[in-house]
Amino acid sequence: MRFIPATPADLDTILHHRSEMFREMGGDYDRTRPHYQEASRTYFEAALRDGSYYGILCEKEGQIVAGGGVVIAAWPGSPMNYSPRRAWILNIYVEPEYRRQGLARAIMQQLIDWCRTSGFESVALHSSEEGRPLYDKLGFKATNEMRLRF
Questions:
Q1: Mind listing the domains of the chain with CATH numbers?
Q2: Residue 88 three-state SS
Q3: Average pLDDT over every residue of 52-77
Q4: How far apart (Å, rounded) are the C-alpha atoms in residues 117 and 134?
């Protein structure tokens, strides 16, 4: 297996991983997929070009079998993050037939290392129930984030 940086040519693969991730999470994540898929395409198409998304893909047996990435967003700084930018890991996905082989962990480690060497003070993510044990083992901690939906 080898890890390769995502490029704009990988847009459809990234969108496939994102869609399948939400489909597998079920419930509202799955039911609302048609409503956010176009927004995802618009965002990732631009972000892959302007560098505000850094993606990693895992190639095994001649095909892309897993991936994930980091969104780099402008941020006004805060007491726990002095930088004018923040990093969020998202889109961690492994094709079902390649799971339980350490690929998600390897992708996460690549992304964490990239964030560290890129000067980020921290990295955040949102987790599915299935992903939480891995993220806990990697040292992620729950925060005080709250949300109000409209």
A1: 2-137 (3.40.630.30)
A2: strand
A3: 95
A4: 22
